[in-house]
TrEMBL record:
The modification N6-(pyridoxal phosphate)lysine is found at residue 191. PANTHER family: DTDP-4-AMINO-4,6-DIDEOXYGALACTOSE TRANSAMINASE (PTHR30244:SF34), TRANSAMINASE (PTHR30244). The keyword Lyase does not apply. Gene3D superfamilies: Type I PLP-dependent aspartate aminotransferase-like (Major domain). The keyword Transferase applies. One of its GO terms (biological process) is polysaccharide biosynthetic process. It comes from the Bacteria. This is Aminotransferase DegT. It comes from Litoreibacter roseus. GO terms for molecular function: pyridoxal phosphate binding; transaminase activity. Belongs to the DegT/DnrJ/EryC1 family. The active site is at 191 (proton acceptor).
């Protein structure tokens, strides 16, 4: 039996920013050029865009202030009409419907099943009256992208990917975020690359990137310093609002060296996840949905479903785990959880979504950062299994 009085691993603290980033930051502070358009072509923000596009295999990239900004600019770049219906999975972070509302569009929630994936029958039905599909790969879980792309194609609507939490994930060998018209990523501290705040928009479409670059705040002729197709941008001169969602050079300096560490983090994160998943699944108290055959995950957390727990038992389970230093939240049971769709009271007519609600009342979320070693992962699994055993006997 494990001694739980030994301190539990801290699942929330960040990793140090690599020394190479610190050198770049030092040089930047020396020059004072924090604004990306002071030295346009060679600014850290421009260099990060090029490196990111190359890493992902995308034609164009735009560095912005957050993934929320990238999602907003995606909808604006697609020139969706005001009131356009944008489908999203009902299991996502509140920032996603918020970006849609911000863009003057209407979020339409699609059911999500007990494996955290989009309910394809519901998507198919709602796609008939949709203007766009925004697939949020929540917690890095990938739905059947071939089926989703087919639905988007059949209904002639663009598909955007919210890959905020999916950097490094692949579908059938292709990077998540490159499957749709536009892919959006986050560099907020709880994501694979940490800038505190920051985001990236990628696309292969010269028209979309040109419009997004200008609207991100490339005022006057600043768009000329971007790796874009000039002919696509010129017609939009002075014709688009400037929303000023640029990334500043400091954030770009913090992120760029971390890009070289991504592959390593993906391997470690996946190993940690799979180690914990096996332990939890074998305990009999939990089910851990397997990845799809075409999906290669890049997890930095684990989600699992409580098997035959009443609501009271689920609450006791969370208390027990917390007692031993591990925060395990059942999405639907923690107060004001921003990932529970009924808490998105800023949207009109929140629908009843029984499947998603049932999933959220059983699905538990635990952070599992890539930096943990095998012993620490075992500690986390032991705490969770012990917490369940004390409830279920
Ligand atoms: C973090 C996250 C976002 C928001 O990203 P920000 O950069 O904080 O705006 C959106 N969607 C998902 C799935 C996320 O995990």
């Amino acid at each position: 039996m494990r001694d739980f009085s030994v301190e539990a691993p801290d699942l929330y603290s960040a990793e140090p920013i690599p020394a190479s980033a610190q050198a770049a930051i030092e040089a930047l502070l020396e020059s004072g050029d924090l604004f990306r358009y002071t030295t346009p072509e060679t600014s850290p923000a421009a260099l990060l865009e090029r490196a990111f596009a190359e890493k992902l295999g995308a034609r164009f990239a735009l560095a912005v202030s957050s993934c929320s900004a990238a999602l907003f600019l995606s909808l604006k770049a697609l020139n969706l009409r005001s009131g356009a219906r944008v489908l999203i999975p009902a299991f996502t972070f509140a920032a996603v419907p918020s970006a849609i509302v911000h863009a003057g569009c209407v979020p339409v929630l699609v059911e999500v099943d007990s494996t955290y994936r989009v309910d394809l029958a519901d998507l198919e039905e709602k796609a008939i009256t949709a203007d766009a599909i925004l697939i949020s790969h929540m917690r890095g879980h990938t739905s059947d992208m071939d089926a989703i792309l087919k639905i988007a194609h059949t209904n002639e609507v663009p598909m955007i990917e919210d890959a905020a939490h999916s950097l490094g994930t692949t579908w059938n060998g292709r990077n998540i975020g490159t499957l749709g018209k536009i892919g959006c990523f986050s560099f907020q501290s709880y994501k694979m690359l940490n800038a505190g705040e920051g985001g990236m928009l990628i696309t292969d479409d010269p028209e979309l990137i040109a419009r997004a670059v200008i609207m991100s705040g490339a005022y006057e002729h600043n768009w000329k310093s971007h790796a874009i197709v000039r002919n696509a941008a010129e017609p939009w001169q002075n014709k688009l609002p400037l929303y000023n969602m640029r990334m500043q050079n400091l954030s770009a300096c913090v992120v760029r060296p971390q890009l070289d560490m991504l592959d390593q983090r993906v391997v470690q994160g996946r190993a940690n996840h799979d180690q914990a998943a096996k332990r939890l699944q074998d305990s009999g108290y939990f089910t851990v949905p397997a990845s799809l055959p075409l999906e290669q995950r890049a997890p930095d957390s684990i989600q699992f479903n409580l098997v035959d727990f009443s609501e009271d038992q689920a609450r006791s389970f969370m208390v027990n785990a917390k007692e031993n230093g591990i925060t395990a939240s059942v999405f639907g049971l923690s107060t004001d959880n921003a990932r529970a769709f009924w808490n998105w009271q800023f949207i009109d007519d929140i629908p009843e979504l029984p499947k998603t609600r049932a999933m959220l009342s059983k699905a538990c979320d635990v952070r599992l950062p890539a930096r943990l070693d095998r012993a620490e992962v075992d500690y986390v699994a032991d705490v969770l299994i012990d917490a369940a055993r004390r409830v279920k006997g």
